[in-house]
């Protein structure tokens, strides 16, 4: 069959030629399509016509732009009411102020927290600064009384002291002071130090730290307090930075 | 976007470095203006309008073959862009505006389908035509007008989905994936629409194809 004849072209895949023009063929199809264009006059004419039509479409005469499409102040006011712009401006100012304040507070909190840790008395073991709540939770259960002849630790007394003080009164007028150096590390036992109670009024209630008791909080607060201050400060700092730099990050994202 | 000159085969035209650099500078200016517009600067937005209105009007006019309707679509596109400045997610402002304009044009096309109008009425009226170049021969100009008229009619005869895809691909240089995103269809559908549209255009223009071959 002679290539280029109408009969032959009738069997040709015109869509393959069209896809060749659109650069939408795989390597094998490309080879077949190129064969068609090279060997069939009709296919070659189709390919050429597609190019001519595309050129003409690109060059299609366009009427002069009938008007300027710039927005007027009225358009802008209608599309983005002034109060919206004012509202945005207000929130932007508020977020900047709050962001600055939060960041400063957070930073100050972190610094103070760090400073109090640094200036804690060198002779005072860190373990002594643990709060009573930690002791109660982890240390007093199954506490070991190390005082000679003393009765075993009394869970009831220890329980009474929970959350209220760092020491518990015993029935013989001594004070059970929990010292749990490793309480927070999960050990089940702690030391219970028997000390005379200087203030009887404190005993019945079991409230109040014994003067010069090892459980007296270290300067700047207990580790618990410092930890809370540190976390809150870090949170404030983070929120402050987000409020301050969030809009800038968003603009940077817009720039891509 | 792959800007392609008329008559050039797809995928064969490397963009010159100078042109690419100019595009990048233009994009940077667009984004800077858009940021100012986001802050409420209307003048900055209007500078964006001035930079892109000709391009958008030409694009939309090929989709909506009525000058007034095309102008309305472009105006609506700029309104929509201003209303939704915050929705810009980076990239090319030109493409972003193009997408908005094509959507506005498609809205008009849908309404036209319900209320058909005579296609390309301006082609009957020489007054709107761009002024002829002095170097342009009268005969060549006549042929060009005839060719434009035939092509415009053929384009208008296509289903608007096919016409949109062909115009976006051949004229505006969007690639298949970008067109799919604009039209909200799959890439395969876009390819199919383009290929079927090309064949249909060629069939429609077969009686006057000599105008194009000259």
Shape of chain A: elongated
State the helical fraction of chain B.
55-70%
Q: Could you tell me the number of beta strands of chain A?
A: 4
Strand-and-helix sequence of chain A, N→C? HHHHHHHEHEEEHH
CATH third-tier fold name of the largest domain in chain B: Rna Polymerase Sigma Factor, Chain: A
End-to-end Cα distance of chain A: 58 Å
What would your notes on this structure say?
The complex is a heterodimer of chains A (256) and B (214). Chain A folds into three domains: 6-58; 83-118 and 217-256; 130-205, no CATH class. With 256 residues, chain A is α+β, with helices and mostly antiparallel strands. Chain A is 54% helix and 7% strand. Chain A has helices spanning 6-10, 14-21, 27-39, 41-58, 73-79, 82-118, 132-139, 155-160, 202-205, 223-255, and strands at 144-145, 167-169, 174-179, 191-196. Chain A is elongated, with a radius of gyration of 42 Å. Chain B is mostly helical and 214 residues long. Chain B has two domains: 15-117, Orthogonal Bundle (Rna Polymerase Sigma Factor, Chain: A); 136-214, Winged helix-like DNA-binding domain superfamily/Winged helix DNA-binding domain (Arc Repressor Mutant, subunit A). Chain B has nine helices and no strands. The longest helix of chain B has 22 residues, at 17-38. Chain B starts with 16 loop residues before the first helix and ends with a helix. Mean pLDDT of chain B is 80; it is low at 1-14. The chains are: A alpha+beta (256), B mainly alpha (214). At the A-B interface, α2, α4, α5, α6 and α10 of A face α1, α2, α3, α5 and α6 of B.
